């Protein structure tokens, strides 16, 4: 079966792309159409044409479509979880968890449709009333990455539709399967023609048309820093709203007073689960001298217990890297770490399993410094570096010494240090005795510095991006 693009309510064929399983490169997950430039322009035109009616559609219509979508995603979580694990490579329990989160996001924004609100204020001028309302922006271009192929599309699509926008979505070329399944569910849930458009394909083709189009009113992007800068420049040219999520180099601080078991489990989860392919992953483990050796020994023991195998196998903790290119990048950085003088204390080897795939043993460096490339640049794989520091003050300074600012964490039993870290960590999200990766669906997501630009994603804060504020005056 060829999975087609959805343009203006019609399924459209195109160039065929094979979706390959990174855990078994002999297996094709499915065949998916790739859109060309003309088809992408047609999708934008369809979204623009559908916008006036959809932006003024009854709120119960929007509520029903989002609710039905969330209900079907949840009902099919096992099936969709297997699809996600096969095309992206994360373990089946993690994949099912991601599917569940996507369902919760649609459920949340179905409720938000019924909670749309504004303000009525008195004017400073007698006899004049003031109304403050939020209106849909227009056509929203959505460009999503490969590491969360269902959850990230969900947290962009759901608020866009809830607030009355129409969308043109371009998923990552590596993972079209989950995006297609999500759009198919929305289509069958009753999304009118042109409201939801799917254009799978290459970023150099589909993504470029979205950037160049003056009819795209807002563009939300999650991906690399380099591409994010291109999105920003193109959006400024067209005076459009844009929202960027571009990754991190997240610190996890372990203080002498930390509960060692809690610290080790949080660090292992933060750094290595989902194969380290999370923008919120901790790749810098900043550990004070008094607990350093015990922490390294315990974390090494934990890594030895992790099972790296096919994500569909029971008992697998970590699946493969997403593709050959990402595997090469990870191995290159492991080589760079050794060349820079860090000690490879564990792992870092390519692994062979029953089927050919992109398996990598998690890599743990010790004796690293915060000036090394492995501590400065986002690797986006199961590679972490331990940085030894004297005390809390140095730990905080090293944690903040980065161009990124997405997520941070600390393991401590000190209320004083926990409170100070929450206030002074230069990150958009701060975790205490928890992994840096893993956030709730109903609260804002986003960072500072080079990690993010624009209003936060998720939760009620999503309205800041997907709506425009209007102030209206009336003479009584």
How much of the residues is beta strand, in percent? 25-35%
- Compute the number of structural domains: 2
Rg calc: 23 Å
Give, in spatial order, the strands making up the sheet with the most strands.
15-18-19-14-13-21-22
Question: Describe it for me?
Answer:
By secondary structure, the chain is α/β, with parallel strands linked by helices. The chain folds into 2 domains: 2-246 and 451-475, 3-Layer(aba) Sandwich (Aldehyde Dehydrogenase, Chain A, domain 1); 250-432, Aldehyde Dehydrogenase, Chain A, domain 2, CATH 3.40.309. Helix content is 40%, strand content 25%. It contains 15 helices and 25 strands. It has a 7-stranded mixed sheet, with helices on both faces. It has a 6-stranded mixed sheet with strand order 10-9-8-11-12-24, sandwiched between helices. A 3-stranded mixed sheet has the order 1-5-4, with helices on one face. Helix 14 links the parallel strand 21 (407-411) and strand 22. The longest helix is centred in the N-terminal third of the chain and has 22 residues, at 92-113. The radius of gyration is 23 Å and the shape is globular. The relative contact order is 0.14. The mean pLDDT is 97.
């Amino acid at each position: 079966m060829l999975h087609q693009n959805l343009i203006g309510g019609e399924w459209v064929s195109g160039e065929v792309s094979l979706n390959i399983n990174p855990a078994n490169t002999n297996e094709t997950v499915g065949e998916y159409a790739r859109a060309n430039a003309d088809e992408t322009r047609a999708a934008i035109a369809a979204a623009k044409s559908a916008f006036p009616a959809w932006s003024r559609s009854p709120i119960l219509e929007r509520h029903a479509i989002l609710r039905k979508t969330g209900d079907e995603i949840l009902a099919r979580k096992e099936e969709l979880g297997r699809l996600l694990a096969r095309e992206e490579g994360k373990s089946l329990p993690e994949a099912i968890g991601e599917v569940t989160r996507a369902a919760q996001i649609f459920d949340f924004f179905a409720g938000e449709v019924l909670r749309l609100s504004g303000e009525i204020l008195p004017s400073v001028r007698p006899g004049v009333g003031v109304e403050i309302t939020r209106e849909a922006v227009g056509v929203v271009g959505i460009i999503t990455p490969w590491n969360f192929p269902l959850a990230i599309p969900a947290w962009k699509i759901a608020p866009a539709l809830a607030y009355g926008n129409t969308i043109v979505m371009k998923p990552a070329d590596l993972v079209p399967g989950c995006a297609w399944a999500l759009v198919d569910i929305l289509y069958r849930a009753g999304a009118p023609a042109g409201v939801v458009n799917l254009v799978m394909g290459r970023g150099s083709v589909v993504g470029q048309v979205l950037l160049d189009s003056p009819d795209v009113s807002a563009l939300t992007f999650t991906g690399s820093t380099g591409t994010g800068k291109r999105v920003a420049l193109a959006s400024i040219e067209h005076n459009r709203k844009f929202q960027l999520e571009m990754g991190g180099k997240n610190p996890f601080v372990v203080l002498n007073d930390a509960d060692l078991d809690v610290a080790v489990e949080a660090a292992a989860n933060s750094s290595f689960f989902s194969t380290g392919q999370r923008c919120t992953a901790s790749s810098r483990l900043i550990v004070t001298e008094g607990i350093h050796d015990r922490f390294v020994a315990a974390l090494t023991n934990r890594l030895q217990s992790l099972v790296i195998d096919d994500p569909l196998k029971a008992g697998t903790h970590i699946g493969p890297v997403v593709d050959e290119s990402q595997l090469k990048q990870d191995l290159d950085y492991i080589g760079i770490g050794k060349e820079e003088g860090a000690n490879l204390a564990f792992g870092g080897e390519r692994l062979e399993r029953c089927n050919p795939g992109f398996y990598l043993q998690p890599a743990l460096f010790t004796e690293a410094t915060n000036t090394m490339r492995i501590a400065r640049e986002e690797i986006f794989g199961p590679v972490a570096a331990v940085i030894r520091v004297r005390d809390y003050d140095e730990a905080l300074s090293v944690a903040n010494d980065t161009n990124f600012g997405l997520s941070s964490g600390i393991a401590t039993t000190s209320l004083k240090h926990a409170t100070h870290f929450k206030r002074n960590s230069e990150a958009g999200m701060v975790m205490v005795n928890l992994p840096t990766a893993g956030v709730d669906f109903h609260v804002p997501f986003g960072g500072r510095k080079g990690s993010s630009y624009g209003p936060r994603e998720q939760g009620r804060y999503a309205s800041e991006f997907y709506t425009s504020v209007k102030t209206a005056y009336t003479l009584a």
